[in-house]
Design a protein that fits this description.
It is a single chain. The protein has about 100 residues and is α+β, with helices and mostly antiparallel strands. It has a single domain, classed as Yope Regulator, Chain: A (2-Layer Sandwich). About 30% of the residues lie in helices and about 30% in strands. The protein has a six-stranded antiparallel β-sheet, covered by helices on one side. Strand 1 and strand 2 form a beta hairpin. It is globular. The model has no long low-confidence stretch (mean pLDDT about 85).
Length: about 100
């Protein structure tokens, strides 16, 4: 199941303030970028962020999940409505 464009745009809108947020369709789903650097994936209407030590520290106990069969694990961000998360995560952690 591919992601819905409305969901992708919503996630991108939530991250505004962390940098210039864009997205690109990739293999039926989407890559999401901050200032031209990919930082996550949106697959099957689920938002995944590249796993980093800084991200793990911020998230506490991050949920790891694979965005698609055969992919490495990413941090699964289940609360995409929490705009403070994006701002707290900050540009240095996203980009």
């Amino acid at each position: 199941m591919a992601s819905q464009l409305d969901y992708v745009q919503y996630v991108a809108d939530q991250a505004v303030g962390a940098g210039v947020i864009t997205f690109r369709k990739m293999f039926g789903d989407y890559g999401i970028y901050c200032d031209g650097k990919i930082f996550g994936l949106i697959c099957d209407d689920r938002f995944f962020v590249n796993p980093t030590q800084a991200g793990a520290t911020l998230l506490g106990t991050p949920v790891l999940a694979s965005p698609y069969d055969g992919a490495k694990d990413y941090f699964l961000i289940s609360d995409v409505d929490d705009r403070d998360f994006y701002l707290g995560f900050g540009k240095s952690n996203l980009c």
